[in-house]
Amino acid sequence: MSEDNNSNFSWRIFYKNFNHLKDGSSNDFNKKSYDDLDKPQDFNHKPFKGSKDKESDLYLTDDDFSLEDNGGSFESRFHDDSWDSFLDEDSFESSFDNSFNGNFSKGTSFESSFGDSSLEDDSVKTTFPDGDIIKDGLPGDNHLDGKFSSIYSVKNQGFTLKEKTLLNNIRNQLVDLAINNKETKEIARFDDIKDMLKLSLDGSTSEEYINDLSRRFYEYINGYGIINPLVNNDDLEEIMVIGSNKPVYVYHRNYGMVKTDIYFNDDEEIIRLIDSIARANHRRFDSESPIFDGKLKDGSRVNGTLPPISADGPTLTIRKFRKDPFTIIDLIKNNTLNSEIAAFLWLCIDGLGVRPSNIIISGGTSSGKTTLLNALAALINPKERIVTIEDTLELQIPHDHIVRMETRLANIEGKGEINMDSLVKNALRQRPDRIIVGEVRGSEAITLFTALNTGHSGFGTLHANSGRETITRLINPPMNVPKIMISAIDFILIEKRIYLPDGVNYRRLTELNEVVGMEEGTIQLNKLFIWNPLNDSFKNMSLSSKTLEKLEDFSGLNYKNLEDEIKRRKLVFDIMAKNNLRSNKVLTKMVKMYYINSDRVLRDLSSI
Hints:
9-stranded mixed beta sheet; single chain
């Protein structure tokens, strides 16, 4: 295996004044030929193979700004505080940082599941802020037994016997302090921990050790104990505790299912952790309530179980959400969908302000339905009012005018439940432009489709594996949506999770179905795009779209005008993806400006 070249990339960014973007002038866009784009566009979307892609140098015109590789530290110089472009210091991010946050080094010795090993030639170690992924070989490497092991090793996860004694003493003192001073703030708590440590340790203890131990104590007490580093790692999708004296497992975004070197010593330690999370959710977790569903402070979903529900001991599963959600540009770069599909959906979601489309996104568990919904919802016109309804708040739509609502379970006495159907009915009284239901699964489906048939616009997700299966689920119990109402949907998107032999997976939009009406009692679907697994590409299957034909009637534009607008929006996505303009901040600004003056946005991007 060749050693990876870890080049350091740093950029110096120079800014100019962007007031011309809001001067209200209507200069015509100097149309750039769409054929000028290199085809096919390659945005490094293939599944991770263990090597870093080199970023391309970017140069912009003097009217905008330029990027130079100065080989030194990051430097930012603002020429004018009044610049108003959607391109800013966060716009140009390292595509490598976005996809993988580690460094490779050869010759790492470690204890694998096969025993003590020193793999001077075949092992690879990937370093993370709070832990290491240590692999016995890379995906695709051949092993005689056909296996490889992956271990996520957490740094500084344990405490020595002396440190455990100190931790217990400090925790008891903090309890007394909290009782005496109920308004103690977190920053004071950290200072208190540090002061208590200084009093407990002798004067020869280094300041560096005291600071490090204070931080670890603080995170342990205020966080989630020994799994706190896992909770704080944005590269993990799932954290799974399956009992005491067994390794905690994680699902890593790049490596798939990985075993950690974290172990809970006894069942009581796991139960205490789940109970503390349950109390923060104002819920009980005991023998009378052995199943717990809730969330962490950051919104991550939590499920806990107790014996005899889980036969081998208490379990804890945490579904983490990204702190920086994927944008439509990320999905294009990852090849979840291509820029043509994204541009087509953007135009249909927008509806040119006269006929916005209604969309259902279907797929299996953890197939990326919510991620795709979140990315598409970010393209809604900023002037619109959005109401979201979810069982657990997962959507992170970067929109100013948004109302987020969440269902509530019944209390211990069986009272106070607020279900999805009640919230959908309530949303109709809030004058929404868009109603977004996190997951459609029950009686709320009829309420939602009634709203869609009376002029409201909405999105939703549903568990199904094809367009036809989606309709079958909608028209049968427990949803029971009348067939005549199904035509309120314009599109059914199918997303699937594709598994590779090495355990890594990726998501693909496998079908884009258009609902075109009903014939002889059967709802008719028109497949506009499908995913080809042989070459990991997308194929346009239809010459025309009924949704575009309807939009043609409502907008007064002809079909060719609408196709040209799709090409313009595709060009926007292509340039942004090619130059890694992927952050929520820059995308939100671009969307706002595009609705105001699309020509200016295209001119700005075309100068890159």
